[in-house]
Design a protein that fits this description.
Layout lengths: L2 H4 E7 L2 H9 L4 H15 L2 H11 L15 E6 L5 H7 L1 H8 L2 E7 L11 H17 L11 E7 L16 H19 L4 E7 L7 H6 L2 E5 L4 H11 L7 H10 L12 H16 L7 H10 L6 H4 L4 H6 L2
This protein binds adenosine-5'-triphosphate and magnesium ion (MG).
Length: 318
C-alpha cells in the first residue's frame, strides 16, 4: 500500500505559511504551549532529564511517568474553533525549538475503507507502519531524535467510534483495535511520533482510545474579547474605530434568543469576506454597514444542533 493511499498529505515543517496560521490562532495559548511541550519531549526527552537535574537534582520521580506514555492528544469541541488549524500548524513550533525536521502525516479518510472484511484494519495498520518506518529509530547519544512526526487523525470519531455502540459493524471494531495497537506500539518503542485526533464528538470516541489520551483539549467558540481580537486582526487597515469594532463583536455574539455566537471560522471565512465583497468594487468598508451585515448573518449552529433530532440521543442514551 503506498503513501498516497493512506495519507491525504504529508507536509514538512517548518514552513512559513504554517507558522503564520499558528500565530493567527486566538484563545489557544494554553493548548499551544502544552502540545508543543509534549511533542518536543517526544523528540528530545533529554530536555526533561536536564530540567530534572537543574531543578530537582535529578531526583524527581515524576519524570518516569513520561516513559512509555501513549503519545495521544485529543482536540475536541465545537465546529470552526481551530482544532484542525492547530493540529496542522503547531509542529512548526516544535521543529523550530527542537531544531529538527517535523513531518505532518494526515491520515486519509479513505482509511475507513469500504467495509470489506479486514480492509479498515489493514489500512490503519498500514498507516502506523509507514509512520514508524518514516520516523526511523536513530537517536543521538543524548537521546534526541533526528526528526519527529505528527500523525493527524482528523474527524476521528468516524474512525475511533465506540466499540460499545451496539450497531457497530464487526469490521469497524477490528479497525479500532488496530488503532489502539498502533498507539500502544508507538509508546512501547518510544518513537518521536505524536498522534493528534480531532473530533466534534468526544463522547463517540471509543473509551479505550480516550483513556490512552495524554491530554484532551476542549475547543469552544470565541468570547466577546476573542471575537474582538479576530475582528481587529482581519479588519486592520479598514479605518474602523474601536467603537465600530465593539459593535461588530456585539453583533456576532449571542443575541435575539440565540444562545450561541459566531464561531472563529464564521468570522474569518464568512463575515469578513462578506464585508469585503459588499464594499468591492465601488467603495471602501464602512463601520455602520458592517454591523448591519453582521446582524443579518446567522452563525453556524453548534455541532449537536446540526444532527437530525433523535439520532445522537438514541445512540448515546441521552
Ligand atoms: N482560535 C482561532 N483563532 C483564529 N482563527 C480561527 C480559530 N479557530 C478557527 N479559526 C479560523 O477558522 C478556520 C477553520 O478552523 P478549523 O478548520 O481549525 O476548525 P475546526 O475546529 O477544525 O472545525 P471542524 O470541527 O468543523 O472541523 C481557520 O482556518 C481559521 O481561519
Ligand atoms: Mg476540523
Amino acid at each position: 500500500m503506498n503513501q498516497a493511499d493512506l495519507f491525504e498529505d504529508v507536509v514538512t515543517l517548518p514552513d512559513p505559511r504554517g507558522q503564520a496560521d499558528y500565530d493567527r490562532l486566538v484563545g489557544l495559548d494554553d493548548y499551544k504551549a502544552r502540545l508543543v511541550k509534549e511533542t518536543l519531549l517526544l523528540v528530545d526527552p533529554g530536555q526533561l532529564r536536564d530540567w530534572n537535574k537543574k531543578h530537582h537534582k535529578g531526583e524527581l520521580a515524576a519524570v518516569e511517568y513520561f516513559h512509555s506514555r501513549p503519545p495521544l492528544f485529543v482536540l475536541a469541541g465545537d465546529v470552526g474553533t481551530g482544532k484542525t488549524a492547530l493540529a496542522r500548524s503547531y509542529g512548526n513550533q516544535v521543529a523550530r525549538l527542537a531544531k529538527v525536521r517535523v513531518e505532518l502525516f494526515a491520515l486519509s479518510l479513505n482509511t475507513r475503507g469500504s467495509g470489506a472484511v479486514g480492509e479498515m484494519t489493514r489500512l490503519i495498520s498500514g498507516a502506523f507502519k509507514q509512520v514508524r518506518e518514516a520516523v526511523g529509530r536513530t537517536r543521538g547519544s543524548d537521546g534526541k531524535a533526528g526528526r519527529g512526526i505528527i500523525l493527524l487523525i482528523d474527524e476521528a470519531d468516524a474512525l475511533a467510534q465506540s466499540r460499545e455502540a451496539a450497531q457497530m459493524h464487526h469490521e469497524d471494531r477490528a479497525g479500532v483495535n488496530a488503532l489502539i495497537r498502533g498507539i500502544d506500539d508507538l509508546a512501547a518503542e518510544r518513537l518521536p511520533v505524536a498522534v493528534v485526533m480531532c473530533t466534534n464528538r468526544l463522547d463517540a470516541i471509543d473509551p479505550a482510545v480516550r483513556r490512552r489520551a495524554a491530554a484532551v483539549f476542549e475547543f469552544v467558540r470565541p468570547s466577546h474579547e476573542q471575537r474582538l481580537v479576530v475582528l481587529k486582526a482581519g479588519l486592520a487597515g479598514s479605518g474602523f474605530s474601536d467603537r465600530d469594532l465593539g459593535h461588530l463583536a456585539d453583533a456576532t455574539g449571542e443575541a435575539h434568543g440565540r444562545h450561541y455566537g459566531f464561531t472563529y471560522s464564521d468570522l474569518t471565512q464568512r463575515l469578513i469576506p462578506t464585508l469585503v465583497l459588499d464594499a468591492f468594487p465601488e467603495g471602501g468598508l464602512v463601520g455602520a454597514r458592517a454591523v448591519e451585515i453582521a446582524k443579518g448573518l446567522k452563525p453556524t449552529p453548534p455541532f449537536r444542533e446540526q444532527m437530525p433530532t433523535g439520532v445522537h440521543g438514541a445512540q448515546h442514551g441521552r
